[in-house]
């Protein structure tokens, strides 16, 4: 498990340019590099899909909680980096989609000139999960008339991102019971022009996310994001700068003023 994650990371570093090479500026070299990046992202998505299959849970459980957390965080980070290496090597404006059972990825190089529509991910097949960026956000963060964007939706990765140190906003119902905290949604990543862990927005990002478990045992939804260190690949769930817009038995809608890896955490009680 850990070796597979490390292998993805090594392959990613091999794609990262090592310096300026005049020969690499030729169209043929650039086209070859774009193809290599596309193949890498396709293989990366297929690998992550396999790692998140239900039958892979036994292998994950052989790791300690801390090892699971580091491996899952490394996956989040590596997939995002791989997405931006592809975005940076697209020779023209384009949208690349890779959809599997457990991970959906979209990489875009877009023009920010003219009248832009708001952007929604995924464009199809979200199964009740969606994230929206305003046209104003796209224009504000454009560079030289273009913007590069990465979206990823992970179905089961929240199982391996510990809620032990999660910051939770608790209602009276949760405070009056013995509860545990679970990640009760897919994890959705949204990132722009990759520079740092978080991009801050004047227009909040809005996301609606489907609950994985839809029962009365789960309550008190929290709009959360995975705050992690790139140096140690460890992190925790935080609610900072995120707020709840609405919720029902099946879905929760949130807004946040930054872009990162989002999920809905809920209090959980065992009903006997």
UniProtKB/TrEMBL annotation:
The answer, when asked if Disulfide bond is one of the entry's keywords, is yes
Any one Gene Ontology molecular-function term assigned to this protein's record:
G protein-coupled receptor activity
GO cellular component, as recorded: plasma membrane
- The reply on keyword Transmembrane is yes
What GO terms describe the biological role, i.e. biological process, of this protein? Answer: adenylate cyclase-activating G protein-coupled receptor signaling pathway
Compartments it resides in: Membrane
**What's the name of the protein?**
Latrophilin-3-like
By its UniProt entry, which PANTHER family does this protein fall under?
Answer: ADHESION G PROTEIN-COUPLED RECEPTOR L3 (PTHR12011:SF60), ADHESION G-PROTEIN COUPLED RECEPTOR (PTHR12011)
State which gene encodes it.
LOC104948823
Q: Where is the GAIN-B domain?
A: 94-272
Q: Which UniProt keywords apply?
A: Disulfide bond, Membrane, Transmembrane, Transmembrane helix
> InterPro entries, alphabetically?
AGRL2-4_GAIN_subdom_A (IPR032471), GAIN_B (IPR057244), GAIN_dom_sf (IPR046338), GPS (IPR000203)
The UniProt entry, under Pfam families, shows: GAIN, GPS
């Amino acid at each position: 498990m850990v070796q597979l994650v490390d292998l993805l990371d090594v392959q990613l570093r091999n794609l990262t340019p090592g310096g300026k090479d005049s020969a690499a500026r030729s169209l043929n070299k650039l086209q070859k590099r774009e193809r290599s990046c596309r193949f890498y992202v396709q293989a990366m998505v297929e690998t992550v899909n396999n790692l998140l299959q239900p039958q892979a849970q036994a292998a994950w459980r052989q790791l300690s909680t801390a090892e699971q957390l580091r491996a899952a965080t490394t996956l989040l980070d590596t997939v995002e980096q791989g997405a931006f290496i592809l975005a940076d090597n697209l020779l023209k404006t384009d949208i690349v989609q890779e959809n599997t059972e457990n991970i959906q990825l979209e990489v875009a190089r877009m023009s920010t000139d003219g009248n832009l529509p708001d952007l929604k991910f995924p464009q199809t097949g979200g199964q009740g999960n969606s994230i929206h960026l305003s046209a104003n956000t796209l224009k504000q963060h454009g560079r030289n008339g273009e913007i590069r964007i990465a979206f990823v939706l992970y179905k089961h990765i929240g199982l391996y991102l510990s809620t032990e140190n999660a910051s939770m906003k608790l209602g009276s119902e949760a405070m009056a019971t013995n509860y545990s905290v679970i990640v009760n949604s897919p994890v959705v990543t949204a990132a722009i022009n990759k520079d740092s862990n978080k991009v801050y927005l004047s227009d909040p990002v809005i996301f609606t996310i489907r609950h994985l478990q839809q029962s009365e045992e789960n309550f008190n939804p929290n709009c959360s994001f995975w705050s992690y260190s790139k140096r140690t690949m460890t992190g925790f769930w935080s609610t900072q700068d995120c707020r709840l817009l609405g919720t029902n038995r099946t879905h929760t809608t949130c807004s946040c003023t930054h872009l990162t890896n989002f999920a809905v955490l809920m209090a959980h009680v065992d009903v006997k």
